[in-house]
Structures are given as structure tokens and as C-alpha cells.
Amino acid sequence: MDAVLIGNFDGVHLGHQALVRAARQEADVECVIAVTFDAHPRTLLGGGAPALLTLPAERLRLLCEAGATRVESLRLDEELLGRSPEDFIQWLHRRIPFGLIVEGADFRFGRARSGDVRTLEASGARLGFRTLVANQVEVSLCDGNVVGARSSLIRWLLERGRVADAARVLGRPHIVEGPVVRGAQRGRELGFPTANVDPCGIMLPADGVYAVEVTSAGGERWRGAASIGSNPTFGEQPRTLEVHLLGVGSSLDLYGRTIRVHFLRWIRGMVRFDSVDSLVEQMARDCEKVEA
Questions:
Q1: CATH: 3.40.50.970, 3.90.580.10, 3.40.50.300, 2.40.30.30. Which one for 173-291?
Q2: Of 70, 192, 196, 240, which is least packed with CB atoms within 10 Å of its CB?
């Protein structure tokens, strides 16, 4: 029997992973299919889509790693968004003849998000599938607050620089993957060469300095200090992600290579320094904190 899960699955956090696990634990399930979309519904509905936690290829990898047999990405258009919940489920069931659907209690779908798990149960009685409502995954944050695992919560935490808490909800550090591009090369001049990373649409945490781990496709690993912001000491600049690799000299050429920046913890906020010397002294202290 095939089981399906429907959602955007952005971030593939602990809650998403629990849905896959719940489907896998059903004795008669052979294939778990994650049904997602090629864009966020708000890209068509207006209001702007939320910042991405994962790109489609990473989302697919993480879902399969969590236990999904395969991922079906549906093309999002006005016709699909305009379907009533009952019509959408009937259409999907013809496309994928599933015998089980697994969702959380807060699941909403169909036109104007008017369908819920009760709609699924009623449709299942007609079409011959079963609905399993999974329990919400709760996570304890660093401050002791217990919260439900949600993509919107992860974005809220990242907007405030709370990368350690975001990692608790994700089940792993937040990762920004992208190619190293040429920047102003100011860090090299100051004795702290940095890799300027193009985030490729992935959400960046709040402006500040972070302890990170950096990995390459070839398996190399480095500890680093990442700076996110507009370099206020040198005047207003475009917002960038720059990473200084600890213990690595300026001879390492990463230009054009894709690296992954794993955000581990917040070090400090972004500030404007009165002099370049003050900035260099602070950068040295930042590196000491990353190594501590």
C-alpha cells in the first residue's frame, strides 16, 4: 500500500520527519510518497512567499533521507489552487492511488485552505483510503520554552539570530549552500580573508557574527566565523554572507566552488566601529569565541 504526505516541507524539520516516520511505522505501507509543490502558494495568491529554508534539491534529499520512497512535486498554478479540497483529493487519488494519508492535526489544503483532516476522513470514506493524524512534535528551546515544530517558527528564530534554537527545531543546523563569489577582498587586506557566499535564495539569519562549520563537496571541513550584514564600518553596502575559515591562510582558493555553511551559534550583533583597528581587534576576539 502507498502512503502519501502533502505539504511544502520547507526545511524538512522534526515535524516533517515525524510524518514520514509515522507512515513508515504502519505495517502495510510499502511506499511513502511526499507530495509537494514547485512553488509556495503565496507566490500566486499574493503577499509574497516566505524565505526558503531549503532549495528543492535539498528538500528532496532530506525527505528521502528521512524515509520517503520518493517525492512528487506538483506544478502550482491557479487551476490547482482553485480546486476545492474534495476535488483536489479526488484528483490526487487518481494520480497516486494511495491507501493512507498522514498529516498533522493543523493540516489545511484546497481552495482558501478550507480543507482539514476531517475533510480527508470524509473523502477517504468515499475513495477508500485511511487518514492518520500524527501528533505534533514539540521541541524544547534553549530558554526552556516548549514549542511545536513549524517552518514559520524556524524563520522567526532565524530572523532573531537564534540559530541554536533553529537547529533544535530542524534537527540539524540551518545550512546555507552556495558558490563562493568575489567580494571587495577587504578581509584579506585586514588579515582575515573571507569567502563571500551567494546564498542562492536561502534565508540568511539576522545580521551578526556566528560560529559556523563549513563543508565542501569534496568532504573538507573547517570551523569558521561568519559575518552577515552590510559592513557598516565601511559605509552602507549590500547585505552579504562572508565566512572566515579558522586556521586557513589566504592561499586557499575557493572562488567558484560551492560550500555549505552550517550555523551553530550566535556570537554578537553587527555594529559600526569607529576605526579599522577596532574592527580588526574585534574580529580577533570573535575568532577566539568560535574556537572556545
A1: 2.40.30.30
A2: 70
What is the spatial distance between Cα 237 and Cα 224, in angstroms, rounded to a whole number?
A: 22
Alpha-carbon gap, residue 109 to 32, rounded angstroms: 19
Q: Would you state the pLDDT for residue 208?
A: 94
Rounded to an integer, what distance in angstroms lies between the CA atom of residue 106 and that of residue 136?
9
- CA dihedral 128→37→159→148, nearest 10 degrees, is 10
Place of cell 499574493: 46
Cα separation, 252 vs 230, whole angstroms: 25
pLDDT in tens, 58-79: 999 999 999 999 999 999 888 8
**Is 189 a residue whose pLDDT tops 60?**
no
Main-chain dihedrals φ then ψ at residue 3, nearest 5 degrees:
-120, 145
